[in-house]
Design goal:
The chain has 3 helices and no strands. Helix 1 packs across helix 3. It is rod-shaped and about 40 Å long.
Length: 69
């Protein structure tokens, strides 16, 4: 689960070492980390919305005893 956090997204987008991740999250002066944080939060919200819709749609299919994979 540690790879799916904002620090993991910042590390993958900026290619920073582990010691430089936590200061760059706090700093707003660095535009790269700030942009990565915003885009990471947006992607995380989109993932939650897509998974929520998928669970609701499969839940309706399970009630009708038809399971679509």
């Amino acid at each position: 689960m540690n790879r799916l956090t904002f620090k993991g997204i910042l590390k993958s987008m900026d290619d920073l070492p582990k010691t430089d991740i936590s200061p760059n999250v706090v700093k707003v002066e660095n535009p790269n980390s700030f942009f990565a944080l915003i885009s990471g939060a947006f992607l995380f919200l989109m993932l939650i919305i897509i998974l929520k819709g998928f669970i609701v749609s499969t839940g309706c299919c399970v009630r009708r005893k038809r399971i679509y994979i």
